[in-house]
Amino acid sequence: MTGPGGGEPVGRFLAGDPSALRELYDLHGRAVFGFALRCLRSHHDAEDVTQQVFVRAWRGRAGFDPARGRIGAWLMGIARHQIADRLSARARDTDIAARAARSPMQLPPRGVPDRVVEAVVVADELNRLPAQQRTVVRLAFFDDLTHQQIASLTGLPLGTVKSHLRRGLERLRRRWEEADGVAPRS
Hints:
By secondary structure, the chain is mainly α. It has two domains: 8-102, Rna Polymerase Sigma Factor, Chain: A (Orthogonal Bundle); 112-180, Winged helix-like DNA-binding domain superfamily/Winged helix DNA-binding domain (Arc Repressor Mutant, subunit A, Orthogonal Bundle), CATH 1.10.10. It has helices at 8-14, 18-40, 43-59, 71-102, 112-128, 131-141, 147-154, 158-180. Helix 2 (18-40) packs antiparallel against helix 3 (43-59), helix 5 crosses helix 8 (158-180) and helix 7 (147-154) packs across helix 8. Residues 1-6 have low confidence and may be disordered. One of its GO terms (molecular function) is sigma factor activity. InterPro entries: RNA_pol_sigma-70-like, RNA_pol_sigma-70_dom, RNA_pol_sigma70_ECF_CS, RNA_pol_sigma70_r2, RNA_pol_sigma70_r4_t2, RNA_pol_sigma_r2, RNA_pol_sigma_r3/r4-like, WH-like_DNA-bd_sf.
């Protein structure tokens, strides 16, 4: 090969000839890999970096000026940047793993998932009650109204409000016990 740019494959490489990239890999791939392996001490990481170097070289070939230096030196410059990026990523991963190992596992407070499940079950069971019982139970427990206030609001007699509330609660209790596998009380 002649000239500061490394000769004829460099010209074809700069012109976008993929076969020239293969030739440059054959000429410089071992040197790039060896450099990466010495720095990273990982065969796998060195292979990845070597591949990244040649991919970046191909994509950034317009940035190479043969008058400023040899292509091998340019490839090694790309390799240095890729190695630095890999080492930074390793340090970041190590730091994250160390912090995760030091911090206690954050679990939701005891009973929170159970309360959510219970709320869903209660809402479902409420929807199964007859309309008037459902309305009375919701007004009593969710709106915190007295029996008299419910009677005034719904127009139902006070005794009927009390009956709907008692029957609705009994039905909810039975359904709850059936769901838990507990024999209903007589």
